[in-house]
# Entry
Amino acid sequence: MERRWERCRPQQIWDALAEFPCVYVPSGPLEWHGRQNPVGLDAVKSEAICRRAAERTGGLIYPTVFLGAWEVPWPLGMPAAPDLIQSNTQTILDYLARNGAKVVIWLGGHGGSEDYLAYRRAALDAMRQSDILVLAAVDAHLLSDFEKPMDHAAAIETSIMMYLEPETVDLTALDPAPDKWPEGVGGDDPRTHASREKGRHYTETLIDRITDAARRLVALDDPVERRKHRQCVAQQVTLDDMVVYWRAYLASADSPGKTPDESWNEHLEAFRVGDYDRALQAGGKSIEAARRATAGRRPAGREGERYV
# Structure
């Protein structure tokens, strides 16, 4: 059965959403991923994962969104302003909500904090305007229990591509000299640590987790639990907003990482499986820690979206 939205006739779309009203949206920027990987790696891996997920659950796959990455310091990157990313995401979510989607799994392949803040802001707005449920995440947030959830163009991402799209990877494009580090690669050396088996482990875990989330959200009818889902996304917007601020404006000594503390990992894991009470409790702890870290320099979130 054809599951690519853009290749479906109207009745095929309506039939697919009647069977399983979920749409997967893969996204990612055009960005340097080492000499051994394609520049569209983030979106290409997300598309392949979403395609396999839809084959398991039903539903449809929206056309891949090649947009993201506020800062792309290497050649062949296409930067985009966060407001543009958010506006584009909002347009897509509103379109899907109007046309029968009850659940959207937005899977970003790029771990830029400005990007996923934009996804989640748009998701929060969409859920306030319609009855849709949105899980907007980057792949690393679905692997928060892994010792190394993701990297940039290094052993993990290269391995995922070796498993999903092997024809796009060429390790011989890298200088074999051990003292010559691959340009623009962050993580374990792909020349010695990348493998198809590593890629299989990461990929199949991601597929399992987004399919579990999709099935759970499609079946989620309890209005209280649906409200808690939206509250969790509001927490994510609040925390992400502070992270973006402090990474841009605070001295590195005062600036925590993208994941500020262990409570945030607990929030992400609990949110993924639908344990919303635990997610909200952990999220609240992490937000308070982040507020202390910013020392009251700036309130988090825009008016109307702050989580209290």
